[in-house]
Amino acid sequence: xxxxxxxxxxxxxxxxxxxxxxxxxxxxxxxxxxxxxxxxxxxxxxxxxxxxxxxxxxxxxxxxxxxxxxxxxxxxxxxxxxxxxxxxxxxxxxxxxxxxxxxxxxxxxxxxxxxxxxxxxxxxxxxxxxxxxxxxxxxxxxxxxxxxxxxxxxxxxxxxxxxxxxxxxxxxxxxxxxxxxxxxxxxxxxxxxxxxxxxxxxxxxxxxxxxxxxxxxxxxxxxxxxxxxxxxxxxxxxxxxxxxxxxxxxxxxxxxxxxxxxxxxxxxxxxxxxxxxxxxxxxxxxxxxxxxxxxxxxxxxxxxxxxxxxxxxxxxxxxxxxxxxxxxxxxxxxxxxxxxxxxxxxxxxxxxxxxxxxxxxxxxxxxxxxxxxxxxxxxxxxxxxxxxxxxxxxxxxxxxxxxxxxxxxxxxxxxxxxxxxxxxxxxxxxxxxxxxxxxxxxxxxxxxxxxxxxxxxxxxxxxxxxxxxxxxxxxxxxxxxxxxxxxxxxx
Length: 491
Hints:
Blueprint lengths: L1 H22 L6 H19 L4 H4 L2 H9 L4 H6 L4 H18 L2 H11 L5 H16 L4 H20 L7 H19 L8 H14 L5 H27 L8 H12 L6 H27 L5 H14 L38 H19 L2 H10 L6 H15 L5 H18 L5 H10 L11 H8 L5 H25 L5
Helix pairs in contact: 1-2, 2-4, 6-11, 6-15, 6-16, 7-8, 7-13, 8-9, 8-10, 9-10, 9-21, 10-12, 10-21, 11-16, 11-19, 11-20, 12-22, 14-15, 16-19, 17-19, 18-20, 18-22, 19-20, 20-22
């Protein structure tokens, strides 16, 4: 039934787009009309998700050359933009961290310091999820943290019944999802919408937003949201009176002890990760003193290449149990830190989406469509910048409750850029809050994958998610608007 409904919607969209193209209700020039028709088709398919989103992103490679919008060679260049390789390198590093369980060691190390007290455990989960999701996807972070959280809650449940334990369990499970979303705001590679925006700004407006530029503004922004969320959770929404519990502390220590000592692969991955992060942050200094041309994408690829080159340090004598190696050639003793077999977990479709979004944005810019839209909206937009940012942030965060955040940024960023140019301001000023807000939706399960994971556990009533998510949305709107108004990224 659902498939039949989707087919009806698909054909209805095709009919409406065909009528739009034939009737040309806004009397656009021929090239602009073609671009708008292709753009509306892509946007509709992205929003409704009738076919896989990465497949939709390939449409410009077919439609643009056929309609004469752009050549195949020029269109294809967008799918090899440097920003795509930045995210690819980040993906490879994240895969290595996950492969050798470095993320789990970091999380349990933080939880170990909680001492078994309710609020301290909550803070441990929030900080762990936040820090890990700065580098790994928010989905992978939540998937990794959830089993740990459920085990901890199971142990605590028998000792704290009747003492606000239900509220505490809601706060822990929701905090993992929310902190994973928030952590992704802090770095360019933290979440796909960030990469999409940086790519658009660089491609269309020659704004070279570096890793350090983003981090200096967005890390304190994300940390502020996380801090306020923790305060609201522990003081208002989910107050608990759970003191230190020896059983819980012992359980966390036992889980940590299972990790045994640091393995060679863990240490090597950590060294490469730290070196890559250091180069991202200090890149401008190195370029200034050495004269070597170096950008964030190159640094990410250098880090990724190192993972494929450096051996894991596992000797063949270290494992004699052939069952450990079954169907997993990537962990054969003597292998590299990262093998090509590991990359089947890569979100390759996201990279295609970036390319499709850039191709669409470039065609809308060159055909004059974006200028026309921007000038039209600018006539009705609030003239005071703070109110404009507040409006954009509010619309974005509630829209992302029902729409994919990456699709939202790909659709809205070019339009808002044109509005900004028509108003005489830099596009990044209103595109950045829109992009950050798109990753902060907390009210509905479909808002982000971490939200869906949390709700699918069956342990969080929807009313609790709505209540907590609404508060998160309000906090995010306030913090993002203030930071983006007063502390602008310098480009």
